[in-house]
Amino acid sequence: MKPLVVIPVRGGSKGIPNKNIKKLKGKPLIEYTLDAAKEVFPIEQICISTDSVEIKNVAEKNGLEVPFLRPDELATDTASTYDVLIHALEFYEKKGYSPEVVIILQATSPFRGAKHILEALKLFDDEMDMLVSVKETKSNPYYVLFEEDNNGWLVKSKSGDFTRRQDCPQVWEYNGAIYIINTESLRKSSILNFQKIKKYVMEDVNSLDLDTPLDWMIAEKLLETKEFVRALNQ
């Protein structure tokens, strides 16, 4: 299986300014993902897709090559992940490397390690459009999620006669840490239209996605816990 690992990292961030290179316990956030990727893949298979010279410099100091900066049309808030992936894929194909799978590792998942990537890779097969990392959601649509009807009344998002959360069907939430995508499927449609998707389940703590200042505070507190750091490095 020939992979292309894409780490998409824009320079701008509204929730946490410059978060991809902001230091989390003394280490730029992106480095957590770079370190995990380098444990699993040769550096020539790892693509840092960015519009930022600062991010490019951090990646290169960590031994990665950053052979391009994104064109302007892919450096906006409205640029789609699909377009970013196709751009990276076509760039490498022009260099003579034709990946069979595209693997997305988002830099905002610092507690996704090499062991998680390896476990996910073992579950993937070429019958799938995508294998994606998930966690079991606490916001179960059978129990705690509601929508407004035409009269403004709250109704359950998904109908079901359950009196205890434990009795509800399990519902999975993408955690943003790992996406393993069949290249042929990606050529045909965007991720949103994939039909053959399977899951790789991760623990809540490893699923932490840093999107808000509160998320950042939680990550810092976890890294102050010796037991957590020890478990993270095992």
Description:
- One of its GO terms (molecular function) is nucleotidyltransferase activity.
- This is Acylneuraminate cytidylyltransferase family protein.
- This protein has about 230 residues and is an alpha/beta fold.
- It has a single domain, classed as Spore Coat Polysaccharide Biosynthesis Protein SpsA, Chain A (Alpha-Beta Complex), CATH 3.90.550.10.
- Helix content is about 30%, strand content about 20%.
- Strands 4-1-5-9-6-10 form a six-stranded mixed β-sheet, sandwiched between helices. A two-stranded antiparallel ribbon has the order 2-3.
Please name the defining characteristics of this protein.
alpha/beta, two-stranded antiparallel sheet, Spore Coat Polysaccharide Biosynthesis Protein SpsA, Chain A, 7 helices, six-stranded mixed β-sheet, 234 residues, 29% helix
Order of helices and strands: EEEHEHHEHEEEEHEHH
Helix tally equals 7
Mean pLDDT, to the nearest integer, reads 92
Using the coordinates above, name the CATH class.
Answer: Alpha Beta
- Please identify, by name, the CATH architecture: Alpha-Beta Complex
Instruction: Please summarize the sheet with the most strands.
Output: 6 strands, mixed
* Tally of structural domains: 1
- At the fourth level of CATH, the homologous superfamily is Spore Coat Polysaccharide Biosynthesis Protein SpsA, Chain A
